[in-house]
TrEMBL record:
UniProt organism field: Thiogranum longum
GO MF term set: methyltransferase activity
Key word Transferase present: yes
GO BP term, example: methylation
Pfam family, one: Methyltransf_33
Domain Histidine-specific methyltransferase SAM-dependent intervals: 25-325
Gene3D superfamilies reported for this sequence: Vaccinia Virus protein VP39
Signal peptide: none
Family matches, as InterPro entries: EgtD, EgtD_Methyltrsf_superfamily, MeTrfase_dom, MeTrfase_EgtD-like, SAM-dependent_MTases_sf
UniProt protein name: L-histidine N-alpha-methyltransferase
PANTHER family xref list: ERGOTHIONEINE BIOSYNTHESIS PROTEIN 1
Keyword Zinc: no
The entry's keywords: Methyltransferase, Transferase
Length: 335
């Protein structure tokens, strides 16, 4: 990397201010007894992050390209309205879609610094290096941490902030987690700041089902990769041919549920827990929920956190929402 680019990339660890469980505690609480559940953050080791990227390229997975097309259309409006000094993105991944906002800054003659916040350190490093090379004015301050640990530990920033939470990741939170997270976001926002939230919408069950059961099997590999993470991190003995991927749409709960289903009766030793997991044929481990919103439900989620809706962008087919919201009470000053 050229020297100038290197000097525009820094990395910080974000200390958790709220209690967060580690993989040992999560496995102990979630794997041994039914109902079995592992939090989705463990998907995203280096291989998992690459597989997620591949999911975004599948024919069936519409959210990424739908959200990207929306961003392409509204980026300029958002940048001109907020003129952010900082763009802070939660669960940034490769930051592929975020480039539309940087391009809009470019065109508006604005500069901004970018604070991608993610658990996956390798992804932050690679995407950060690419971004400082692509945008010669961009300062990137990578934030490594778990956003469930709260946002009070973020480094201080002077000036106006645009917060991004894209990809429908809010749907991977339970209702309680989503409310708590938006409260945290609201607490660090000042008048004039904005939150751009991307959320997936309720739609035809067939379209939803296909998006999480792509024909090429990338989503299945992504789901099964969790077992490799458990083997590595917990000295466990999962054999991935003994499990299959299953994702279904639970219409009543308005959510996709993704499971790893045991294909036989089996015992799996988890070294770090010194316990053995007993699974019946067909028993399942919940690995992810992905909630699908109505526009009203999404807006009330934001309003309940004290955030006022400023814009609500959606495509003609209504498949995805991008909502721009701001802290209530404070005037949205525009320069
Ligand atoms: N925003 C990107 C990526 C979405 S995938 C997009 O829209 O395509 C979810 C991202 O959140 C991954 O990059 C993953 O590493 C990150 N992530 C998952 N759980 C996290 C947590 N608890 N704290 C911080 N980042 C997390
Ligand atoms: N935020 C994405 C979503 O809910 C995450 C995701 C997409 C995902 N496909 C997945 C998570 C497959 C696990 C498995 O749509």
């Amino acid at each position: 990397m050229e020297e100038n680019a290197e000097s525009r990339l820094t990395s910080h660890k974000v200390p958790a201010r709220l209690p967060v469980q580690d993989i040992l505690e999560d496995a102990s609480a979630g794997l041994i007894d039914a109902p079995r559940f592992m939090p989705p953050k463990y998907f995203y080791d280096e291989r998992g992050s690459q597989l997620f990227d591949a999911i975004c390229e599948t024919r069936e997975y519409y959210p990424t390209r739908t959200e990207e097309a929306l961003l392409q259309v509204c980026a300029r409006d958002i940048i001109e309205q907020l003129r952010p000094d900082h763009i802070v993105e939660f669960g940034s991944g490769t930051a592929r879609k975020t480039r539309h906002l940087f391009d809009a800054c470019d065109r508006a003659g604005e500069t901004t610094s970018y604070w991608p916040f993610d658990v996956c350190e390798e992804m932050l490093r690679d995407s950060g290096q690419q971004l400082v090379e692509e945008y010669e004015w961009l300062q990137v301050n990578a934030l490594v941490g778990d956003y469930h640990g709260g946002l009070a530990g973020l480094p201080p920033r002077e000036g106006r902030c645009l917060y991004l939470f894209l990809g429908g990741t809010i749907g991977n939170f339970t209702g309680e987690e989503a409310a708590a997270f938006l409260d945290e976001v609201r607490a660090i926002m000042r008048p004039g700041d904005g939150l751009l939230l991307g959320a997936d919408r309720v739609k035809d069950a067939g379209v939803l089902h296909a998006a999480y059961n792509d024909e090429s099997g990338v989503t299945a590999r992504f789901n099964l990769n969790l077992l490799q993470v458990l083997n590595r991190e917990l000295d466990a003995e999962f054999c991935d041919t003994n499990f299959e991927h299953r994702a279904l749409f639970n219409a009543e709960a308005s959510q996709i549920e993704m499971y790893l289903v045991s294909r036989c009766r089996q015992s799996v030793h988890i070294g770090a827990l010194d316990r053995t997991l007993e699974l019946e044929d067909g028993e399942r481990i919940l690995t992810e929920i992905s909630r699908k919103f109505t526009p009203a439900r999404l807006e009330s989620l934001l309003n309940d956190a004290g955030l006022a809706i400023q814009r609500h962008f959606e495509p003609d087919n209504g498949w995805f929402s991008l909502v721009l919201a701001g802290p209530e009470g404070g005037p949205v000053t525009q320069s």
